Structure formats: C-alpha cells, structure tokens
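Final report, section 2: Outcomes. Of the targets proposed, DUF4194 domain-containing protein is the one most frequently requested by collaborating groups, and we therefore present its record in full.
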Amino acid sequence: MSDPIATLIARLLAHRVLPRHDPMARRALIDERFRQDLDQRLAASGLCLLENPYAEHISIALASEQIGPVFGSDDIWQTNNQGMKRDAIALLTVLWSLIILPKRQRQHSRRTREELDQADLFGSEKPMPTQEVASVLSEEALIADFGHVLGGKGRINMNLGQLARLGFIKRYNHQITEGPLLDLALDYSKLAPRIIDGALGDVLREMGADIPTEMPTLASEEDYIDEEPS
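The predicted structure is given below as tokens.
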C-alpha cells in the first residue's frame, strides 16, 4: 500500500530539500491532518520539518532535544553541526545578514503594498513572494569588504565552496545567491535581533548594506498559507 508520508520523508532524506511547490511538499503545508501525521512520524525518529513562509524550500533537521545526544561527543556541535570552522561561521553570518535581512524587509514591504492594493478577499492567504526579492552579491565585492577579517581571498573562496556544498548559498559566474538552506537552517527570530541591534549591523550599514535599523513587524506563519494546487 502506498505510504505518502514515508515517501516524503524518504525524499527529504535523499535530496535534503524539496521546493515548496512540489506536490507532496505543498500537501505537507496545506493539509492539516497530513502535517500532523508527518510531524508525529518525524518526531518518533528525532527529526522535525524545517519550513517557513518566506523560504522557497522545505527540509528536515534533528529535533532540538536530539542535538546534544547526537553531536555532544564533539565540542564543535556547540557552534554548528556541519564541521565548519570559526571563519566559515563568520562568513555564513555575514552572508545571511546581506541576503536574508534585506530580502525579508523587501518581502514584508511588498506584501504590505499588495494587501493595500488588492480588493481580493483572499489576498492575505497568498504565500510570501520569494524569488522576486532575491539578493545577488558579488564575490569580488565581498572579498574587498571582508577579506581582511575573514582570512583573505583564498580562505573566503574555500569557505564559499563549503557553504555552497552544504546548500547555504549558490555560486555562479562570481555571483552569490541564496541557497535552499540559508533561510531554513538559521533561525531568523533569534539571529536577526542580534545583528540588527549589534555591532555587525552597524558595520554593514556603514558599508552601505541594506540592513534595517529595526525588526520589521512580520505576521506569524499561520497568516500565510500556500494556495491549493490548481
């Protein structure tokens, strides 16, 4: 007998991420009973679903209570579970700040404009725009701005390669764009205030980066649902 939940979990394990418009991913996002069963099956294996209405993909991760038991034998798990060294984590934080923070601000602004313009009763139920507000960074500019604090061109190139392999970013023709895990694996609600209100936010603003000065008032995830497949 066909088991769609088992198939979805197997696909997520095999591919790491699925686009949210994938039929099975969409079902997990719009079918409440299916989602409950999926969450229960994942929890039974120490896993959880990673998704948010601002990201273009879904994924799975260890449940928070399993992180210590799984990675606790190695000190590195206290900062990350991908084997990244400090300079790679610093680079990831900078890239997240330069890509996700401006993207989230533009998503929120665009969403607000659309809601004001739409007379459509169901306008508020459309998913957040994603691709239309994506950021593109120049590797050359990144190295020029941060090379002196992130190990120089060679080290940055090596770390960019690692971040690309892990799915945090994409690289093409010396340009950097968001990878499928950048807006999933890092918790916006925890990381954004530390950057916006911290020293890194001030440094990035002085360099001309589009970093907001305060957290945008974002609606909860429950306010944004994916449209039913046609």
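Residues 4-71 form one domain.
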